[in-house]
Amino acid sequence: MLTIVNFMPVYHQAPVSLHLLKADVAAAAERIRAAVEDGGDLRVLVPACETALADELRCALGLGADAVIEADPLLGFVYENDTACVQVTRGEKPIPSDVGGNLPDVRLIPGSELLGAPGVRTVWIEGADAPVDLPEACAVADVCSAAGVAPSDAKAVYVGFPSGALVSAGDGEARVELGSDYVRVLTKKDCAASVLLEILSTYRQEGCGRCVYGHEGTYQLATIVGDICRKKGQRADLDLMRDLAPVMATQSLCEVGRAAGRTTASFIELFGDEIEAHITKKTCAAGACKAFMTYHILPDKCVGCGECVDACEEDAILGKARFIHVIDQKACVQCGACVSACDEGAIIQAGAEKPRTPPRPIPIRRR
Length: 367
Ligand code: SF4
Ligand code: SF4
Ligand code: SF4
Prior knowledge:
Elements: E1 2-6, H1 16-23, H2 25-35, E2 41-47, H3 51-61, E3 68-71, H4 82-89, E4 106-110, H5 111-115, E5 120-125, E6 132-135, E7 137-139, H6 140-146, E8 154-159, E9 165-168, E10 175-177, E11 182-187, H7 192-206, H8 212-229, H9 237-251, H10 255-280, E12 294-297, H11 307-311, E13 317-318, E14 323-324, E15 326-327, H12 337-341, E16 347-350, E17 362-363
Parallel strand pairs: 1-2, 1-4, 2-3, 5-11
Antiparallel strand pairs: 5-6, 7-10, 8-9, 8-11, 12-16, 13-15, 14-17
Helix pairs in contact: 2-3, 7-8, 7-10, 8-9, 8-10, 9-10
Bound molecules: iron/sulfur cluster (SF4) (3 copies).
One iron/sulfur cluster (SF4) binds near residues 303, 305 and 308.
């Protein structure tokens, strides 16, 4: 039996396994040795950028130099797959050839699982400086609290690869299985479509290109969601995603493509209406997608000086002296040049909530 212990960070911003290893290398070495079956082989994966740590671990393990392998730190997800890890032990590129767990004579153990306390999951919450310990099955409200987000501001909890689960924060009593090193709490300021695009972009970078559903599917989903965020979404887009995501979740060759499909399906289930509003209502409810931001002139601040008219190369600002000026939204290209031209601070950028403005320039009546 070959035992592979993986300390490669699944997410670069959430190096939980490495954090636990660095905390006490000697104690980690003891646990690693205890995990190896009698007469079995051991390989330990650490990032190639951690040479000193690799040497310290080799020393503590007291095994041959080849027991600790320094692997390519640019990848993360694929090291959760045993067929990919076996290739690394042979000096080859980590390319998955099957769903993890199907090799009878290989045991792949994530470092965070080996070094973590029983029943506890050490997770790195997006934006935090250090990981936190939480129960493996945890109330959504507790995750929000660990992230420093008030339950009333939270929209959902996203558990990263390989889980790909998304749980609504609407029900604070709901529980979430923390099956990943990485957790993110989506707040009301987060646009579900933009967050999904971010996640799919990560899956695209991690994909090896070996299978059609994993590679092409992730590319298609990222392209569609990217169009939606750029105000170029089509009415059929959501149906296409609804069809494609579940097929990817079952037909992709390994868990990378499967998790991308599962994640997309969860986002559509929870935030389908919010994503669809980008297409049908041309609004981003969170006010996060730049393409949906618009510029407006506040009537109570405009003094009718005309400085903004000269700054706008698109001739999108209408008005004359002593008139409240108005931006023609059809002509505006959202360049923002007019904002700095206005000394009165009358021009603002607005997301989902737009200010009330006159439809055309009107005389200024105030003194
Ligand atoms: S799902 Fe992605 S990473 Fe897995 S084999 Fe297919 S292309 Fe490669
Ligand atoms: S928006 Fe500003 S720059 Fe433009 S006319 Fe009004 S006060 Fe002048
Ligand atoms: S944002 Fe740019 S295009 Fe739009 S009104 Fe201002 S200057 Fe003109």
